[in-house]
Amino acid sequence: MNSLFTPSYNLYRTLKTVCPRVRFAPSPTGYLHLGGLRTAVYNYLFAKSRGGVFILRIEDTDQTRKVPGSVEALVKDLNWAGLEFDEGPGKDSQYGPFIQSERLNIYKDHITKLLNNESAYHCFCTERRLNILRRDAVKLQRVPKYDNRCRHLTPEEVKEKLKSGIPYCIRFKLTSDVQYYEDMVFGNIAYDVSLNEGDPVLIKGDGYPTYHFANVVDDHLMGVSHVLRGVEWQISTTKHLLIYRAFGWTPPEFGHLPLIVNSDGTKLSKRQSDVKVEDYRNNGVFPLALVNYITLSGGGFGHVVGEGVRLKTMEELSQEFQIDRVSSHPSRLNPDLLEECNRLEIKRQLQDHKLSEKLVDNLQELIKTTYPKHNLNVSKEHIRNILIWATSRITRIEELVSTKFAFMWILPTIDKIEIDNNLLEKLIQNLEKVEKFEEHSLKNNLRTFAEENNIKFPALMKILRSVLSGLKEGPGVAEMMHLLGKNQSLERIKAVMR
User: Fold this and answer.
1) What is residue 203's DSSP assignment?
2) 163 exposed, middle or buried (CB, 10 Å; 0-12, 13-18, 19+)?
3) Into how many domains does the chain fold?
4) 3-state DSSP assignment of residue 410
5) Alpha-carbon distance 222 to 238, whole Å?
6) Of 165, 177, 325, 344, which has the fewest CB atoms closer than 10 Å, so is most exposed?
7) pTM of the model
8) Is 138 inside a domain boundary?
């Protein structure tokens, strides 16, 4: 076993599990995608499940890919999802700053330590030479990698080249020994990184650190105890362990989260499904629904979605999260599961007084925005009744403002309609006696009424559809009356007689 795993290290592992410090460290290169949110969610839940600290760190060492405004958008998405960070940009902490471009002096100090202990060296190879190495390796069907040429320069040669102002980067000296570590998700991992890579760059020619160097330095200085990140970084972890050893530091524990794939096993892409968190938000998905969707797809919990099952709150998810239950297999996304999660969230909010008030207010505003030029029925009582009815029929509240359900909100405008007032008067008296204003009983009642008043049932339905909605098509009349409720149905019928 590697020398990193000593008795003192095992003691450290025991102590740091008491109050872990984890970080979500995205690059500000655009939007927060579903994979990034999954990483943030699992870090957050891991920290909260153990009374730990959730850190947000912005890794902007690649300045060429930085997108203006992306940090603000990222924080907005995290807050929307209920993932408030304890330490990060804009928050006072002894571990800051939390934006890597503001930590350049720190990296400069630490690269000097590696140069002094001869774990790193200056490399003066030009981009042209590196391209030739890559081209020749491809021709010979070999893995392209740096040949470590500058590792063998003498101190005098290095000094002369620096004095001459020759551009350089700083590389790390890889060793050929196999590195081992226990992945919290995948188990024991062993890999000799030098077999497929040349000495990696730690400081680029522009003076900025690479991901590998800044990542190690920041995690150590910020006291990060556990690193949960995507499986694409698993192969780099042994390289990071070598850097930790070069500094004489104890590394954190590592856990790598599997890929997120579509339901058919293909790679997640914009062409096949939404990947931007912003898109989910704009399309009516609730934050808790999306978080539950992610956790149900990736494991870490004992709960499933099914009949009689409800969504878990963030507090409940934190209490129940177990890292050893996270699946090492790719997380398959099932779009139907997301719709079910969103339906369950509507149901959950309706059962909470404060949440239901907010839900009603949001739908009320949505109705007014969708139909600004109509005479509307948007009383809170009416909206709440519609939402209760809709919990088993819709998955997003935006569906309720579609043209299919417009009749529920828009009061019909009836112009010169030839209807027997006596017939309507009898119908009103009949409906006032109905105790259960439900679809099945209403349908039977109206059929009986038609027979007793010598009017064909389809003709009565046509009249009522026009009176109740002003529409020629839509849901069944009995269903429409059930949705509108007794008072609203009677009011609309009476309005025609005035």
Assistant:
1) E
2) exposed
3) 3
4) strand
5) 20
6) 165
7) 0.86
8) no
Question: In whole angstroms, what is the distance from residue 418 CA to residue 357 CA?
Answer: 41
Q: Which residues contact 274 (CB under 8 A, 6 or more apart)?
A: 34, 280, 283
Is 270 among the catalytic positions?
A: yes
**441-480 per-position pLDDT tens digit:** 999 999 999 999 999 999 999 889 888 887 777 788 998 8
Place of tokens 């997108």: 67
CA 145, 147, 152: angle at the middle one, nearest 5?
150
pLDDT of residue 1: 34
Given 108, 270, 380, 436, the catalytic residue: 270
Same domain, 286 and 337: yes
Q: What does residue 341 show for φ and ψ, rounded to 5 degrees?
A: -60, -40
118 belongs to a structural domain: no
73, 278 Cβ separation under 8 angstroms:
yes
Structure tokens at 309: 């099952």
Report how far Cα 380 is from the mean position of its chain's Cα atoms.
Answer: 32
Joined together, the tokens standing for residue 16 give: 């740091």
CB 212 within 8 Å of CB 197: no
What 8-state DSSP symbol labels residue 274?
-
Per-residue pLDDT, 273: 53
DSSP string, 321-367: --GGGB-SS-EE--HHHHHHHHHHHHHHHHTSHHHHHHHHHHHHHHH
Q: What is the pLDDT of residues 88-130, one digit of tens each?
A: 999 989 999 999 999 999 999 999 999 999 999 999 999 999 9
